[in-house]
């Protein structure tokens, strides 16, 4: 992936009774979905994330409201505003991420290709830079 993250458009079915968006594993995302979780009720001014994964692939979707995802590969940085429930941000392993600027009522859903594994997380930024230097 040339970019730090990749915004993808998900199938949006427009209906006067309410719209519907679908995401299918190995079709809309290139991985098998093994875990889903969501972040919500984030107080104003708070940040979430603040870590990287060694092996985990993720798709982040703003189910409601908006927030900014800041990505860093140790050399480059990029920011992505997520504010449409029919768009998602793909994040590959080895990328530091923070989620900031949550609007009131924002909900961030995350689809991941692995079950929770504490050993996959890097929580210290300096440790992340060391990891990246040793795992280009």
Word description of this protein:
InterPro entries: QdtA_cupin_dom, RmlC-like_jellyroll, RmlC_Cupin_sf. This is WxcM-like domain-containing protein. There is one protein chain. With 136 residues, this protein is mainly beta. The strands form 3 sheets. It has a 5-stranded antiparallel sheet with strand order 1-9-6-11-4, with no helix packed on it. Strand 7 and strand 8 form a beta hairpin. It has one domain: Jelly Rolls (Sandwich). It is built from 1 helix and 12 strands.
Question: Structural class per helix/strand content?
Answer: mainly beta
Task: Describe the global form.
Answer: globular
CATH homology group:
Jelly Rolls
Number of strands: 12
Which fold name corresponds to the CATH topology? Answer: Jelly Rolls
Name of the CATH first level: Mainly Beta
Count the DSSP helices: 1
Unreliable spans: none
Strand order of the largest sheet: 1-9-6-11-4
Question: How many strands, what sense, and barrel or not for the largest sheet?
Answer: 5 strands, antiparallel
Radius of gyration: 15 Å
Helix content bin: under 10%
Write down the overall mean pLDDT: 94
Helix-strand topology string: EEEEEEEEEEEEH
Please tell me the total number of domains.
Answer: 1
CATH architecture: Sandwich
Could you tell me how far the N terminus lies from the C terminus, measured between alpha carbons in angstroms? Answer: 14 Å
Protein name: WxcM-like domain-containing protein
Pfam families: FdtA
